[in-house]
Design goal:
Oligomer: heterodimer
Structural class of chain A: alpha/beta
Number of domains of chain A: 3
Strand order of the largest sheet of chain A: 2-5-8-1-9
Strand order of the largest sheet of chain B: 3-2-1-4-5-6
Mean pLDDT of chain B: 75
Number of domains of chain B: 2
Number of helices of chain B: 19
Shape of chain A: elongated
Radius of gyration of chain A: 26 Å
Distance between the termini of chain B: 55 Å
Order of helices and strands of chain A: HHEHEHEHHHEHEHEEEHEHHHHHH
Largest sheet of chain B: 6 strands, mixed
Low-confidence stretches of chain A: none
Low-confidence stretches of chain B: 74-79, 206-215
CATH topology of the largest domain in chain A: Rossmann fold
């Protein structure tokens, strides 16, 4: 499953409920054709994670998500041996051991005979695949989302390199596993720290900013078809004005939508300073921010 | 097409981007897949491959506009007068006149559509490091070389005017008017590039305000505290430190006893035939990182820096290591003294005995240069670098590129500025030059701000 041209990307993503700019669509299209991962950067709440979800919906692919955090290691990201299961199997086949070592004349022979069977316990049967291995070993194309990769340690980033350049991973006991179908990979980053050059080099980079006015308007209309054009336009203008105030945390797109949704639920027709004050906690998550917006209500609602 | 891209890549590299060959190959193969006549698509392919962080995008956009829009005027379709060829003729004439002067030739190349030489020249001017061999320090270097280029630009401009006046190829009056206009536009652009260096976008930088904490005292600027108040502040700090340590140790104690790790217990029990003799617990949380502080101790800043050091050293066990440097015009390592002595004595001792020239002028550029030379190995990916200073560098070269190098070496770079935010970038403050390279930037004038910062740092 992939896209044929940039136009189609835009249409399909919009069908999946995600309105994009041409730039984003171009990058998505290129990534799907050239099998390269996308590194998505941008402020919180502009729809970085949502982009991956929309792609998976648009192409009808399964989404595998790996949430990164400090201290994430291979056993949580790639695979883990299931010790308990191995132990259980050992208990169950205990009686069989007699058959295996039957005919051995001394201890060395017996150990050799057992050793020739040890593959049975380090086989795929006892592997618990984690997101990365799932994505690699999937029979069908999947969308792999590595979320907030900047939160993971630099060591983990280095480990990702093998995966991203060759789409293969190495499990010491089993050897190297190569992807049957190359997954569609997206990495998102909040700019908490810079990614290494080696990682950047392997990715196509895109920075998603707060959307242009028209784009945001279309997003609101798409998510809330019942909203009137004038109200949607007022909401978008107000949010854009609020972003200009320089708050601690700028309202993001999802908050714009939440606010629009609550205004529709309250069946408000136009926004005045009273409505703004009443519904402010939908868009401002700090008290200082809320006070600042209230103080500047006149310029916000202009 | 490939040629045009390669030339653009060369420009990017001259302007300081690290563009690898594999990225160029990717970019060219991707261009074949899109509709190149649509400029949005074309630009996003270039941008996605060459400017891979937000901080680089502002400059990339300018370079792109320059290269693909402003210099390529010879593609003008309705130009029947063949102005470009005539421009070339004139430039050739001029080249004969200025043979030998590298800068002049770069400027003429720029006029004829090849900006490489000129960009290189500008980059040299902007990133020039002061000559460390110089006996006396001289902070006019960058200014002087910029002036030099400006003079050469003016010189070229007057030569062009003269040659159009002389009219060696007998052009019509209208053509000459066209030429004059074209050349003037191009020269204006060259000026623009010289004078306006775009600051990188950096929305990632965090600037937070703070809650009220310890009442009025916490809001007083450090510089306005009386001696008695300083004692009070010390008491407050002591109390705070005890509280923080309590919180920290509680976290450690509970987590080291921690949750039973069933998986590892079962596995260990395997050795005793399934009897869980050896009970395993989850590990302690990972150790705290390393801290490196770099404190300006010129009088204006030191009152804030000493409290900062005071708190950090009282909390030493929360970090694996605290390295400290102080500087006026070069960094001096004071880690040892601060570790061995009680903190307040240590500070007095440092000020009295260390080899520091208080009468020197504060020089951030020199400090960064020395730091890079002697102490760069204290930074690694587990280090948080905290710089405390007002960024007032007496108009010496700020060396913000070295700060960028330092940013790349460490995990986080945090700048605490004891001046009110409204005073940043006034006078000789270089705060905005440094701002682009910090992960976090805070005003730190009083105890509340300091406390908020430290709490966030360790909890």
């Amino acid at each position: 499953m992939s896209f044929n041209d940039v136009r189609e990307v835009q249409e399909k993503l919009e069908g999946a409920g995600y309105v994009t700019s041409r730039e984003i669509a171009t990058v998505v299209f290129l990534a799907s054709v050239t099998d390269k991962p996308i590194l998505v950067e941008g402020p919180a709440g502009v729809g970085k994670t949502e982009l991956a979800k929309a792609i998976s919906r648009a192409l009808g692919l399964q989404l595998i998500r790996l949430q990164c955090y400090e201290g994430l290691d291979e056993s949580k990201a790639l695979y883990e041996w299931e010790y308990a299961k191995q132990l259980l199997y050992t208990q169950m086949v205990k009686e069989k051991i007699g058959d295996v070592i039957a005919g051995a004349h001394n201890l060395k022979d017996a150990v050799d005979k057992i050793a020739s069977h040890e593959d049975a316990f380090f086989s795929e049967r006892f592997i618990q695949p984690r997101p990365l291995l799932q994505a690699i070993s999937s029979e069908e194309r999947v969308v792999l989302l590595v979320d907030e990769v900047d939160k993971a340690d630099p060591e983990f980033e280095a480990f990702l390199l093998e995966l991203l350049s060759d789409y293969q991973v190495t499990i010491p006991e089993l050897g190297t596993k190569t992807a049957k179908v190359i997954p569609y990979v997206l990495l998102t980053s909040n700019n908490y720290r810079d990614m290494s050059d080696a990682l950047k080099r392997r990715c196509i980079h895109i920075y998603i900013d707060y959307p242009e006015r028209d784009l945001e308007f279309r997003i609101v209309k798409l998510k809330l078809p019942e909203i009137s054009d004038t109200l949607a336009a007022r909401i978008v203008d107000a949010v854009r004005a609020i972003r200009e105030l320089g708050l601690k945390k700028n309202p993001c797109i999802s908050e714009t939508i939440d606010w629009a949704r609550s205004l529709v639920a309250l069946s408000v027709e136009s926004i005045d300073s009273r409505v703004l004050a009443d519904t402010l906690n939908m868009i401002c998550k700090y008290r200082a921010d809320a006070q600042m917006v209230k103080a500047n209500a006149a310029s916000v609602l202009k | 097409m490939v040629n045009a891209i390669l030339k653009f890549v060369a420009c990017c590299r001259t302007a300081g981007y690290r563009v690898s060959t594999s990225e160029v190959v990717d970019c060219i193969s991707q261009l074949a897949l899109i509709n190149m006549l649509n400029e949005d698509e074309f630009r996003s392919v270039l941008r996605a491959n060459f400017a891979k962080s937000r901080r680089e995008q502002a400059q990339f956009d300018r370079l792109y506009r320059l290269y693909f829009h402003e210099l390529r005027q010879d593609i003008d379709l309705d130009d029947t007068d063949a102005t470009p060829q005539k421009m070339d003729q004139l430039i050739e004439q001029l080249q004969k006149q200025v043979r030998g002067s590298e800068n002049h030739e770069a400027i003429l190349d720029f006029l004829s559509g090849d900006p490489m030489g000129f960009l290189e020249l500008i980059r040299r001017v902007q990133t020039e490091e002061a000559d460390p061999e110089q006996g006396r320090k001289f902070n006019l270097g960058p200014l002087a070389s910029r002036l030099m280029v400006m003079v050469q630009l003016n010189d070229t401009r007057s030569r062009i005017d003269r040659i159009i006046e002389e009219n060696p190829f007998d052009y019509r009056e209208e053509t000459r008017g066209n030429l004059r206009r074209r050349f003037r536009e191009q020269m204006d652009r060259a000026y623009d590039i010289l004078l306006r260096e775009p600051r990188p976008h950096n929305e990632g930088v965090q600037q937070r305000t703070h809650e009220q904490y310890l009442g009025q005292l916490g809001e007083r600027p450090f510089s306005a505290l009386t001696p008695q108040e300083i004692e009070r502040v010390r008491e407050l700090i002591d109390r705070l430190v005890r509280k923080l340590k309590d919180i920290m140790s509680r976290r450690y104690a509970s987590s080291s006893r921690g949750v039973l790790d069933a998986k590892r217990t079962i596995r260990a029990a395997g050795r005793y035939d399934g009897v869980p003799i050896d009970i395993r617990f989850r590990k302690k949380p990972p150790k705290r990182g390393k801290i490196v502080t770099l404190c300006d101790i010129s009088s204006s800043v030191f009152s804030a820096a000493r409290f900062m050091l005071n708190i950090l050293y009282s909390l030493q066990e929360c970090f694996t290591r605290v390295h400290s440097f102080i500087f006026v015009n070069r960094p001096v390592e004071v880690t040892k003294v601060l570790e061995e002595e009680e903190i307040n004595h240590a500070i007095v001792k440092v000020l009295r005995e260390m080899d520091i020239d208080y009468n020197a002028q504060t020089d951030y550029g020199e400090t960064f240069r020395q730091f890079r030379k002697n102490h760069m190995d204290t930074l690694n990916k587990k280090t948080t670098l905290i710089i405390i200073g007002d960024a007032r560098s007496n108009y010496f070269h700020p060396e913000d590129r070295i700060l960028e190098e330092m940013r790349e070496k460490c995990r986080r770079l945090i700048w605490l500025n004891p001046e009110p935010e409204s005073a940043w970038n006034t006078g000789d403050s270089e705060m905005f030059a440094y701002k682009a390279h910090c992960h976090e930037l805070r005003e730190c004038r009083n105890l509340n701000q300091l406390v908020a910062f430290v709490e966030e740092l360790i909890l």
